Prior knowledge:
Blueprint: H1 12-53
Amino acid sequence: MTVPKSLQEPSKRETIAERTSAAAIEIIDKETSQRQKKTARLREARLKQEQAREPKPSKSA
């Protein structure tokens, strides 16, 4: 009687694929985090710039 492959240890190819997948996911997560931080920083800078441009209400009414 043979044991189904799913119950055996992963093959060398599967192990390499899992490591590659984990590395790719780590890289993608890191890039996503960096992109979100950059977006937040740029959004904050844009909002500050827009607030600085808004005309101030005049008191001569």
